[in-house]
Specification:
single chain; about 250 residues; alpha/beta; Undecaprenyl pyrophosphate synthetase; 6 strands; globular; binds 3-methylbut-3-enyl trihydrogen diphosphate; binds magnesium ion
């Protein structure tokens, strides 16, 4: 199959929503005699390429784990850099995202994030909210347990106000109070960097996702590696490219 044809097919059969735990930035830096922060900067550059590649492949939603609720425990200098990075990133990339019709969303607790970082993030959300292309959802100060806990508090509030009876609490109701309430669940969950952990990512949403782990450090995660993950997803889903050709998928 030639590349053009493959590209066309991929558009039809790529997963709708991919979530990526972007792990390995620190080790990438260290192994190159650089700082961990330089690794995070390199990761941010890779992010732009992966967003672009995902858009070209017809993926509708990309959720990127950028900072976990556990990452506050890291050395202050590193945390400070990770809080500075979104400011720098959006300053550089927002015009590109506007031009490419990319919509930015956030999953996580922004109330605990320094004001300058929060402002840069909310500006990106606000500015891109009418864009209709790929949705890039950054998980920032995100924790799966934290998300479920805050949803529980809100459900209990609904019960207290007599808007909901306990018997009426179902998956749909809980879903409405998750950070990702507007998004479908991920189909494919990728973790780079060699670790095979969930690290508190999308505990509720990934209930049915295909899990894919790769040893590549995130700064080295190119479009080809993303394609490998998608091919594996297709294989597990028994999606045959030739079935697609015959329009039977
Ligand atoms: C992931 O890379 C990025 C963030 C957690 C922000 P790491 O910083 O965890 O890199 P490693 O795992 O230490 O190499
Ligand atoms: C997960 O990676 C969080 C992000 C990529 C943002 P970590 O490196 O923080 O996770 P652990 O510490 O290996 O579980
Ligand atoms: Mg890590």
């Amino acid at each position: 199959m030639n590349n053009e044809r493959r590209k066309k097919l991929m558009k039809i059969i790529a997963p709708q929503h991919i979530a990526i735990t972007m792990d390995g930035n620190g080790r990438w830096g260290k192994e190159r005699g650089k700082t961990r922060s330089e690794g995070h900067y390199a990761g941010a550059q890779t992010m732009e390429h992966i967003i672009e590649a995902s858009r070209d492949l017809g993926i509708k939603i990309l959720t990127l784990y950028a900072f976990s609720s556990e990452n506050w425990k890291r050395p202050l200098e590193e945390v400070n850099y990770l809080m500075f990075l979104p400011i720098k990133f959006f300053k550089q990339k927002l015009p590109i995202f506007m031009k490419k019709n990319i919509r930015i969303m956030i999953s996580g607790d922004l109330t605990k994030v320094p004001k300058r970082t929060r402002n840069a993030i909310t500006k990106a959300i606000e500015k891109t909210k009418h864009n209709t292309g790929i949705i890039v959802n950054f998980a920032f100060n995100y924790g799966g347990r934290d998300e479920i806990l805050q949803a529980m508090r809100r459900v209990i509030q609904e019960v207290r106000e007599n808007k909901v009876h306990p018997e009426q609490i179902d998956e749909e109701l809980v879903q409405q109070f998750l950070y990702t309430s507007e998004l479908p669940d991920p189909d494919l969950f990728i973790r780079t960097g060699g670790e095979k952990r969930l690290s508190n990512f999308l505990l509720w949403q990934a209930a049915d996702a295909e899990l894919y782990f790769t040893d590549q450090y995130f700064p080295d995660f190119t479009k080809d590696f993303l394609l490998e993950a998608i091919y594996e997803w297709q294989r597990r889903k028994n999606i045959d490219q030739y079935d697609v050709l015959r329009n039977t998928v």
